[in-house]
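ok trying again, last paste got cut off:
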Amino acid sequence: MILHGTPIRLYVLDFGLFHVNAGREIGIPGFLIITDRDERVLVDTGFPAKYAADAARAARDDGLQAFGHVRHLTDVNLCAGQLALLGLAPADIDLCILTHSHIDHIGGLHSVAHAPIIIGIEERALPRPLYWGDARPMDWPAARWLPVHEDTDIAPGLTVLHVPGHAPGQLALRLDLPQTGRVILASDAISRPSEPVEGYDGAHDPALAAHHAVRLVAMAKDAFMIWGHCPLQWPELRKIPSFYE
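nice, full thing came through this time. structure:
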């Protein structure tokens, strides 16, 4: 076990809105988990700050316009801005979990590199974060890395799930909350309920992504599943400073 406490509260972080050229408008989620020992676990860190300053220019520089464009992203939707809604700062994070290293998940990672970072072993083996397309502008921060290669319990009632496919070291999470019960944070292992039917053509390993999607769906039979980027679910989720407990 890495943590001492059990999860008692889950915040959904709003890292902005993105329009996918295929026609979907998706929310970019992150998460903050609080334990009964007041440990603060950050899951993903949103877009790089330059997307709040000038999204169009940043997308041109990174080639992201080939996939879509940012619809809404302000300083409040950056990692520090979301934590500030609770009176917290990146320095207050005790543990970071990086589900994978695409651009909308890794932008604020350097700001929490003082904390241990859990990552899929295959992801950390990459010379640089995946970021987007051929763009590789970010280096891995100097940090205490905790690579995982299998499902790993990190606290009572909190498990990191090793579900490669969408990305080489894709992770998801399973946690148990006192009132909500079991929650699955699918991340991009399953972006929306229709994805297992539509297929995973854009995944790093489509067959492996499909395999782990089946596993996650079975695991979530009696759980609350928060999909990675579901256009229908996103408006209904409680966003920070509201929470699930």
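cool. The first helix runs from residue 50 to 53. The mean pLDDT is 97.
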